[in-house]
Amino acid sequence: MSDDIERLLASIGSQLDLDAELEREVIDEIRGHLEDAAADAEVHGVTRQDALAEAAARFGVTDVGLQLHSVHEGQATADGVVAASLPVVCALVLRWLVFSPGGTAVNWRELLIRPAFWVVAGAALLVPMLRFTNRRYALVSWTFFWVLSVIFALGPALRW
Amino acid sequence: MTKIDQMRKGTTTMVILKLLSQVEEPLHGYEIIRQLDAASQGYFRFREGLIYPRLHQMEKDGFVESHWQGEPATRRRKVYRITERGLEQLSADVENWNDLSQTVNRLLGLEESTA
To answer: Bridge partners of B81?
Structure first.
């Protein structure tokens, strides 16, 4: 790849603030376009280096990354909301499973042998990290609720 | 942007949908540009980078659907195919365009009124 194309792709990438997978797909799509354009020019006798530079010049739009970002922006936000909600829901279910209705941690250790506890704990711990490419959105709430869960699980006399 | 560019911009979605409705195989962005350029004899030679925001918006609107062709280790291409919703949109756009162009032509005296 020529410097012109790498510069163009880096410039477009810097204008995107989407989830990592979507950003990679956008860049791959544009890279494929530039390679096809360069291959076409090479057929007409242009050198590889010149063909790539010409393809980058013909692509020609400096703010294409911003335009692509605005197309996908809402989608990223929606993904982020879902990603942030799941650990919160799981944490609330955990709280219901772990603590008694009175809000104390009495007898919480008995729940460690209940499969439902481990299923919910596993989901809260793993699903956001594996499923959501926007996990940076989920990380704060995920960490917050897990730290709270651990603190109160280790202190049975405390109230949530 | 020239006035012609502005007028072309308003019809880009329609002509892309028309092109995709005429081909059996899905097309990638560069091929769409090439075919529009050839079919319009250079009239639809717009800045290549503009095609992607437009295609992504069309996909978000449900007018086209896309998938990747090729293995991850090789050169992969994202190709687009028109959807049922896209066909409906194309039909509505063509009808609107026909009405608009006939009316403007009448106003400009370029076409006799059929009324």
So the answer is: B65
A residues 27..86 contacting B (CB < 8 A)? 28-30, 32-33, 35-37, 58-61, 64, 67-68, 70-72, 75
Beta bridge partner(s), residue B80: B27, B66
**Residue A25 contacts B, CB cutoff 8 Å:** yes
Three-state secondary structure of B37-89: HHHCCCCCCCCHHHHHHHHHHHHHCCCEEEEEECCCCCCCEEEEEECHHHHHH
Question: Per-residue confidence of chain B (115 residues) as pLDDT tens digits?
Answer: 666 667 777 788 999 999 999 999 999 999 999 999 888 887 777 778 889 999 999 999 999 999 999 876 677 899 999 999 999 999 999 999 999 999 999 999 887 655 4
Domain ranges of chain A: 3-62, 74-154
Task: Mutate one of B48, B51, B64, B66 to test the A interface: name it (highest A CB count within 10 A).
Answer: B48
CB contact under 8 A, A29 and B50: no
Q: Which domains are seen in chain B, by residue range?
A: 3-107 (1.10.10.10)
Q: Please list every residue in chain B whose beta carbon sits closer than 8 Å to the beta carbon of residue A39.
A: none
State the pTM of this model: 0.69
